[in-house]
Amino acid sequence: MKLKMVTYPNELLRQKSEPVVKFDSELRELAQAMLDSLEGFRGVGLSAVQIGRLIRLFVVDTRAPGERGVFINPQIVETAQDNVPYDEGCLSVPTFFAQVMRPSEVTVQAYDVNGKPFTLHAEGLYARAIQHEADHLDGKLFIDHMEEKDRKRLLKDYERAFGNSGRSGKKRNVSKR
């Protein structure tokens, strides 16, 4: 299954995704295609909305042992008190990175591809990726966690770089300016 990335400023990225109600072979195939595509997209997480599907599904693979999973209808039920900075990027805002503060640990409840519920505690990059992808399901982007002046600068640079096409080969980090 060939997946096509939805990029900013596509309004689909700002819509809230609908809960998954049917756990079938089509859902399993979609989740596997998303996992398989992560390396090619050069990402650690991918939500269904980023490939044009408004359903509450995301996948994460940090390439560390035990940090790969499919999350369906996820709910973050607990977060650490401390927020830590990290240069975050997004496949839907390609080539741009900015420092974002997020809790260092999360506990998430979700369903697997067979509809079986699970609870998972994550920390570090895994926790960050889960939070980032969960935001996508609610129509939020990492840029929404930035201070307004930094967000405006990033979006201005983004538009200058490639207008509405969302494609460029250069990595840009706006948090270091």
For the terminal residues, how far apart are their CA atoms? 39 Å
Question: Based on CA inertia axes, which overall geometry fits?
Answer: globular
| Strand arrangement across the biggest beta sheet | 1-2-3-6-7
- By CATH, the topology is Peptide Deformylase
Which quaternary structure do these chains form? single chain
Summarize model confidence as the mean pLDDT: 92
Stretches where pLDDT is under 50 for at least 5 consecutive residues are: 168-172
Radius of gyration: 16 Å
Number of domains as seen in the coordinates: 1
Q: In the CATH hierarchy, what is the architecture at level 2? A: Alpha-Beta Complex
Largest sheet geometry? 5 strands, antiparallel
**SSE order:** HEEEEEEEHHE
Question: Which labels suit this protein?
Answer:
177 residues, alpha+beta, Peptide Deformylase, 31% strand, globular
List the helices and strands and how they pair.
Elements: H1 25-41, E1 45-47, E2 57-61, E3 68-79, E4 83-90, E5 93-103, E6 105-111, E7 117-123, H2 124-137, H3 148-162, E8 172-173
Parallel strand pairs: 5-8
Antiparallel strand pairs: 1-2, 2-3, 3-6, 4-5, 6-7
